[in-house]
Design goal:
The protein has helices at residues 15-27, 69-75, 80-85, 152-155, 428-432, and strands at residues 46-47, 55-56, 64-67, 90-94, 102-106, 114-118, 121-123, 141-148, 162-168, 176-184, 188-198, 205-219, 235-251, 254-268, 279-296, 299-314, 321-338, 341-356, 362-378, 381-392, 396-408, 413-424, 444-457, 460-478, 492-512, 515-528, 533-534, 541-551, 554-563, 566-567, 575-576, 579-589, 594-601, 620-627. It is mainly β. The protein has one domain: TonB-dependent receptor, beta-barrel domain (Maltoporin, Chain A, Beta Barrel). It has a 22-stranded antiparallel barrel. Strands 3-8-9-6-7 form a five-stranded mixed β-sheet. It has a two-stranded antiparallel ribbon with strand order 1-2. Strand 19 and strand 20 (381-392) form a beta hairpin. It is globular, with a radius of gyration of 24 Å. Residues 58-163 form the TonB-dependent receptor plug domain. It comes from Noviherbaspirillum suwonense. It is a multi-pass membrane protein.
C-alpha cells in the first residue's frame, strides 16, 4: 500500500475478549474494529429486523448490528454509505464522491442481493436491482439495523446477503426541537432541523417531523486514466429530504399511524468534457399507513399498506434516460405468543411497476407471499424455524426455509448455528433490456450455513462468525450469449455461473478506564466458481480499529479503516490497490442542549480507489454545531 499524496489538495480537503482483540491487533497493527462506541445502557438494544418483531439483540439467532442514534451522532458522519462502510462485513464501491452512484456489498453479496427497508418499506430499483444509496439521507435516520445472512423467509426476494433497515426519528415525551448546521471541505454545507414529541392521556399522539438539506461543490468524479468519461470540473450535489411519523393510540393495544421519507438528489457526474452539465436527478420515497391491534392478550396483528419509489432521470448531451420504479405492498402480520414461544403468520402482496425510457423495459409483476415462523425460547435454548412461499406472475413460485439453534453456555456466552435458503429475482434490465436482457432468465438461489460464538458482559463484547453461502444460477454477463449469439451480438445477461461466498467475521469491544477499544476484521473469499475468479470490487480482508476517549463533556476518537487489494473486473485483470485510512473525530457537550462536533477523514491524504477511473476524497474536514439530541 502506497502513501503517495493525493493530487486533489487544492480544496482540503475477560481472557476470551483479550484473545480476540489480540488476534485482531496482531493481524493488522494499523487497522480493524467496526462499531461506533456503545454505552452501558445500549449494550443489548431491541432489534426488529431479524424477526419482524421487537427482540433483544442478544437473543437474535443471526449475526447483527444495531447502529444507535448515539453512535451516529458521535461518529460525525454526514453520508450514510460512509457510515456503513465502517461496519463489519460491509464494503462500499462508489463512482466518485458523495452523491455519485454507490453499491453496498454485504458478506460479498452484490448490491442487488440485499434488501433495504425504510421503516418496514422496501426501497430500491426493480429495473437495475438494489437500493440507490447515494439518495438516502443520513440526516433523517434515527437508527439502523443490519442482519447478516439469508432473510428470504421473512422478506422474500433478494435477501441473499442480508437486510439493512433504516428507521426514521420517532416522537416521545414533551415537544422538543433539534437542529444541526455544519460546513466542511469541498464546499460541503448541511442544515437540518425537526420537531418531535407526544401528547399524554389515553389517546396519546406521537409525532416527529424533520427536514434536511445538504450541498457540496465536490471534486472531479473521474481521474485522468478514465479515458471515456474524464472531465476535470468539480462534481457537486444537492440533497434535500424530509421525513415524518404520526401515530395515535386509539385504545390500549390499538394504534394507527403513518410514516414517510422523501429524498431528492441532484448530483453531477462526468461524461467527458462535453460542456454539458451531466447529472442524475433521483427521488427516493418510502410511505406507509398501518394499524397495529392486540386482538387477544396473546395475539397482535399488524396491517400495513406501503409504497416505495425510486425515480431517476439522467439529463446528458446524449439525451435523457429515465428509470422509474414503484413498489406497492400490503402486509398482514400476526404474532401469537405461546408461553415463551412465538408463532408468526404473514400474508403479503407486492406489486412492482417499472417505467423506463428504454424500449421494452417496463411493465409490472405481482408477488403473493405466505410465511410462517416459530421462535422457541426455553431456558438456555433458543431456536427458530421458518418457511415462506413467493408466487410471482413473472418468475413463478419459490419456496425458502431456515432453521437456527442457539445455546447459552453462560449468561454472557452463547453459541449458535443456522441453515437457510434465499433467492434473488431477475431485474427488469436482466429480463428485457434491448440486446442484453433474456426474458427466460431464472431467479438466483442461495443456500447458506453458518456458526457463531457471541460474548457480551458489561462493556466487553466479542463475536466470531463463519459462513458459507452458495449462490446458483448466478446472473452475469455472458459472451457469447448461450441463448442466441446472433441475436445478442454483444453478449447478454444469463444464468450461467455459480458463486461461493465464504468468510469469517470478528468483532470486539472493551472499555479500559476512560478508553474504549473496538473493532472488526473480515476474512472472506467471495468467488465466482465458474471462472474461479474473485467477485469484482470485493477484498479478501477488510475492517477497522478505533480507540475512543471520554472525559466529562469531551468524547474524542481515532480510527484506522483498511481494505486489502480488490479487482475492478470479473476477469481479475484490473487491480484496485489496498489502502488504510486514518480518521479523527470529536464531540464536545457545551451544555445540556448544545454540542459541537468535528470529523477529519483521511488525515494522511491517502490516494486510493474504490473503482478504477473514479476519484475519492483527499484529506477533508467537517465541523458543526448541534442543538438538542437526534
Amino acid at each position: 500500500m502506497t502513501t503517495t499524496r493525493n493530487p486533489r489538495t487544492a480544496s482540503h480537503r475477560s481472557p476470551l475478549l483479550a484473545a480476540g482483540i489480540g488476534a485482531l491487533a496482531a493481524a493488522f497493527p494499523l487497522s480493524t474494529l467496526a462499531q461506533q462506541p456503545r454505552t452501558e445502557a445500549t449494550l443489548s438494544p431491541v432489534q426488529v429486523t431479524s424477526s419482524r418483531t421487537p427482540q433483544q439483540a442478544r437473543d437474535v439467532l443471526a449475526d447483527n448490528i444495531v447502529i444507535t442514534s448515539e453512535e451516529i451522532a458521535a461518529s460525525g458522519h454526514k453520508n450514510l454509505d460512509d457510515l456503513l462502510q465502517q461496519k463489519r462485513s460491509i464494503e462500499i464501491s462508489r463512482n466518485g464522491g458523495p452523491g455519485t452512484n454507490a453499491s453496498l456489498f454485504l458478506r460479498g453479496a452484490s448490491n442487488a442481493q440485499n434488501v433495504v427497508l425504510i421503516d418496514g418499506v422496501r426501497v430500491g430499483s426493480s429495473s437495475v436491482g438494489g437500493a440507490t444509496w447515494s439518495a438516502l439521507p443520513l440526516s433523517q435516520v434515527d437508527h439502523i439495523e443490519i442482519v447478516y445472512g439469508p432473510r428470504s423467509t421473512l422478506y422474500g426476494a433478494d435477501a441473499i446477503g442480508g437486510v439493512v433497515q433504516i428507521f426514521t426519528k420517532k416522537g416521545e415525551g414533551p415537544p422538543r426541537f433539534n437542529a444541526d448546521i455544519g460546513a466542511g471541505s469541498y464546499g460541503a454545507r448541511t442544515i437540518e432541523g425537526g420537531l418531535s414529541g407526544a401528547t399524554g392521556g389515553e389517546h396519546s399522539v406521537h409525532y416527529a417531523f424533520n427536514l434536511g438539506r445538504e450541498k457540496a461543490r465536490g471534486f472531479s468524479a473521474t481521474t485522468p486514466d478514465n479515458a471515456f468519461s474524464y472531465n476535470p470540473d468539480p462534481d457537486g450535489y444537492t440533497r434535500e429530504s424530509a421525513s415524518g411519523q404520526l401515530s395515535m393510540d386509539l385504545a390500549p393495544g390499538h394504534e394507527i399511524g403513518l410514516r414517510f421519507l422523501q429524498s431528492h438528489l441532484d448530483a453531477q457526474y462526468d461524461n467527458g468534457d462535453t460542456g454539458y452539465n451531466d447529472r442524475t436527478i433521483t427521488d427516493v420515497g418510502a410511505y406507509s399507513v398501518y394499524s397495529r391491534n392486540r386482538l387477544l392478550p396473546n395475539w397482535t396483528s399488524l396491517l400495513q399498506l406501503s409504497r416505495g419509489v425510486d425515480r431517476s432521470r439522467t439529463p446528458s448531451d446524449f439525451g435523457d434516460a429515465v428509470g422509474n420504479t414503484r413498489q406497492d405492498t400490503i402486509t398482514w402480520q400476526n404474532d401469537i405468543a405461546l408461553g415463551t414461544d412465538l408463532l408468526q403468520l404473514l400474508l403479503e402482496r407486492r406489486v412492482e411497476h417499472v417505467d423506463t425510457s428504454d424500449q421494452g423495459v417496463g411493465g409490472s409483476r405481482a408477488t403473493n407471499s405466505l410465511a410462517a415462523v416459530y421462535q422457541l425460547k426455553r431456558g438456555a435454548h433458543l431456536a427458530s424455524a421458518s418457511v415462506r412461499n413467493d408466487d410471482s406472475t413473472q418468475y413463478g413460485s419459490k419456496t425458502t426455509g431456515s432453521l437456527a439453534y442457539g445455546y447459552r453456555l453462560t449468561d454472557a456466552l452463547r453459541v449458535n448455528g443456522s441453515v437457510g435458503t434465499s433467492f434473488r429475482a431477475p431485474s427488469y434490465n436482466e429480463l428485457y433490456y434491448p440486446g442484453y436482457g433474456v426474458p427466460t432468465n431464472r431467479p438466483e438461489s442461495g443456500r447458506n450455513v453458518e456458526a457463531g460464538v457471541y460474548y457480551e458482559k458489561g462493556s466487553d463484547q466479542f463475536s466470531a462468525v463463519a459462513y458459507r453461502n452458495r449462490v446458483t444460477d448466478l446472473l452475469v454477463y455472458a459472451f457469447p450469449c448461450p441463448v442466441s449469439p446472433a441475436a445478442y451480438s454483444f453478449g447478454c445477461a444469463y444464468n450461467v455461473n455459480e458463486a461461493l461466498l465464504t468468510g469469517v467475521t470478528l468483532g470486539a469491544s472493551t472499555r479500559i478506564g476512560q478508553f474504549t477499544l473496538r473493532g472488526s476484521l473480515d476474512f472472506q473469499n467471495p468467488r465466482d466458481e465458474t471462472t474461479d475468479k474473485l467477485l469484482a470490487r470485493r477484498a479478501r480482508r477488510h475492517g477497522l480499529v478505533a480507540l475512543d476517549y471520554r472525559a466529562g463533556p469531551l468524547m474524542a476518537g481515532v480510527e484506522t479503516q483498511f481494505s486489502g487489494k480488490r479487482f475492478d473486473d470479473s476477469a481479475n485483470t484490473a487491480t484496485l490497490g489496498g489502502y488504510a485510512l486514518l480518521n479523527l473525530y470529536a464531540n464536545y457537550a457545551i451544555n445540556r442542549d448544545w454540542s459541537a462536533y468535528a470529523r477529519w477523514n483521511n488525515v494522511l491524504d491517502k490516494d486510493y480507489r474504490l473503482a478504477n477511473g473514479y476519484a475519492t476524497a483527499g484529506s477533508n474536514v467537517f465541523v458543526g454545531v448541534r442543538y438538542g439530541f437526534r
